[in-house]
Structures
1.
Amino acid sequence: MSVQRCPWVDLSKPDYVAYHDEEWGVPVRDDDRTLFEYLVLESAQAGLSWYTILRKRAGYRRAFAQFDPLKVAAFTDSDVDGLLADPGIVRHRQKIEATIANARALLRLQQEEGSFSEFLWRRVEGRPVINKPRTPADYPTRSPLSDGLSADLKKRGFRFLGTTTVYAFLQAVGVVNDHSEECFRQAELAYF
């Protein structure tokens, strides 16, 4: 019997399968740097395929100081110009500038809330939301949780984080468990 995965996984791409099997939907707690990484990558993905971003992930890590928000927050206009010439990332000025603005907003949020992780997980009382979609049509692209979080983040100065992007972020970091009902990861992560 073969392993059942979410229907969106392209089995012909081993790195995509590994991302699904090892990372997607695994709750990220007490690790603001990893949360920032996913926030940046999901923001960069807007309008593109996730696989495009996954293939550029190493380039993003290099270009954005291993997602250290303190270092990214200090980036200058000169850094932006350099990043616009970097083929290892998506060279989109607004997305690059949003990443820097989001690092600065994240540092402010940490001062106000203790940590991004605490701020995020309080919204779900520390437990992942479990949906168990059955078909591709059952996968939500937004929710009241993502609507509220997107609005709150925007008020705090975050950019390029609409509700659909925020929902994808919540799925990626395991705040929402959207592994399909048949997927082997659904049960494994249900009580993580």
2.
Amino acid sequence: MVGPGTPDRDCYRIIGARGLQDVVFVGPVSYDELPRYYATADIFCSPATGSESFGIVLLEAMAASKPIVASDIEGYAGTVTHGQQGLLFPRRDADGLARALALLVQNPELAHRLGQRGHQIVQKYRWEVVASQVEEYYEDCLRAANGRSRKRAV
């Protein structure tokens, strides 16, 4: 588990009760270290409960060809299409999260397909693509403001 936050007593109780030996709470890591974690993951999971304006972490994981399991919140649902690049589950639905993870663990071919689709989709978010779209939008605004003239409005 990578990211900020401190596991509570219930986390350790559940891990112990299930005999899970390979769960490690790493804590926050630097941006330089993140690619290594993405590369070694089988599935990227983000059970965020809100306040995500855009799923940049999902794009980072998709760039590493990882299937996504994430909360169906506004910022994430605009980045991942359920069943295409990953699986979305209702916010704060622990059972939905467990089902989505189990589905991908039990179906490695599906996980691989979702990861590949995510890698393809993430290309449209490359800086050169986004910058070109922003520049085109600004030019359209200038043309509209100036009656289709290329002269700049004052």
3.
Amino acid sequence: MSGVKQRVELVSGYLLHQRPYRESSALLEIFTETHGRVGLVARGVRSARSRQRGDLQPFRQLRFSWQSRGELGTLTSAESDGVIIALRGKALYSAFYLNELLMRLLARHDPHPALFTAYSSSLQVLGQSHDVEAVLRLFEMHLLQELGYGLQLDCDVETGEALKLDTLYDYHLESGPVPTGTDLHGGFIFRGASLIAMARGELDDPLVLQDAKRLLRAALKLYLGDKPLKSRELFRPAKQG
């Protein structure tokens, strides 16, 4: 992309993160439907006279225009593209968590239209429901799948046989499940019923949801590394309250 000037007009997207830049500008990271994650300079946006200052809020669908000649572009406009989603408490913390996952795991300029749709849908559900756990687990699974790290949840990786509801499996994170005689307290062990339900996106059972959280947290750690997610700290006061 270096050396070639590119002009992009009215692309649907969301603001993931922003931080101050120079006296009155900001550095933005946005997630768009057609261009993936994009870094932009928003000149003068922190000025009291800026028309875009109020629109540049996370979790609000926007239409972005920018021009670029390299890795970092320059924002030319941002306008509202839908209803503002009201997020509070756990729903708000959860949305920040989704943003941080995208910031940490998505490469710039790598479009993922299906993931964009999943993200937008997740925000909508978070705005309407107090049960955030299933929303987060489904998005995490979708994210891993889109990045090429999808979990093997439907067959024994050694034999290719379909998983069985009443069998226990030792889950190898970089390959998948293999049958084991070890009980549930013996290691990274999961019930076949949980893995099958996860594959179907059926997380209504509290035990399945608990297993999904345990498996997905370990799987994500492979790609996130040891640096902790800041957004997870937001949940601690909520749990204590």
4.
Amino acid sequence: MHLAFTTLACPEWNLKKVIARAMEYGYDGIDFRGLGPELSLWKTPEFSTGLLETARQVQEAGLTVSGFSSSARLHVASEEEAAAQLAEVEAYARICRAFGPAFIRVFVGGLKPGETREAVAPRCAERLAAMIDVADRYGASVVIETHDDWVASPALLMILEACPRHAEVLWDVHHPYRLVGESLETTWRLLGKRIRYTHFKDSLPVDPAAPNGAYRYTLTGEGDIPLRDIVRLLHAQGYDGWLTYEWEKRWHADIAPPEVALPQYAQVMREWLAELKGR
């Protein structure tokens, strides 16, 4: 398995620093969720006019772009909005051509008052299939994240099974466990054959009496998300993909800076992976 981090962790770093720190901390790859102040990566010089130079720098550093964490959503209010989401996926898919195969993360999106998952799922499945088709043309892969009102595996499975294309999953290992109390075994039983990518983070409940309510993020291994057990589960099931750290510094200014969180994650994960290799 391979280590990457998303650039949510370092919104103040430029490309040169992102690459340098990834090398210094011992990561294998980078998942781009924006660069600097810009979330729409294709709008930056580094990923538009300077795209080939960026690809060269990443390659010469011995790194891989593991993915692009887009903002694209399946559940939107109009066909015009749906077209905009599809265009975003295509923008990332074009970028992927410079880096080789990579994953493009998409969301389902939240339900509006009065909506049911059963009613929403078929249209979302159609839009997901369209995104997969677009990504395929550029050699990229779309993965749908366990997020929003779809963190529970049975809910997400409604869309996956209705999709006319084979749809694959980004397992944000934090959300199903923390937000709906779903066991690791349940997540894997329902989604395991589709899980191609992961996002990792740790947390503790703000109120221990309500473990699925409010929470605060912690450094890796300092919370109560069973991350070590998840790594063991993935290893046992033959997963050999990315263990990507999603430290949400962009959204949470009060959490530890990337200079602390990123090397700590890499160190802890290397220790856990070394234990597995030693068995």
